Amino acid sequence: MKYINAKTLLPQELVEELQRYIQGGYLYIPAKEEQRRCWGELSGCREKLRQRNLEIMQEYGNGATVECLAAKYYLSEHTIRRIIYQNM
0.70 cut: is pTM over it? Predict the structure, then answer.
């Protein structure tokens, strides 16, 4: 997150009004609801995990065991089962 000095961005009247509530601190201004992104959308991590889970499902459907998949993807057997059952 990048911090911006309010004096360089906002009108002086607004800065003075904000100073009535907070001085010398940090103020978080959330994005509008329609501009929010889900976890992993910007980094691409969400898509990578989706692809990995599809590969796990395909390999399981082709006969790979839970134990084999856990070792291959460095995940616990419990996690492999959860991926399989959630996507059935």
Answer: no
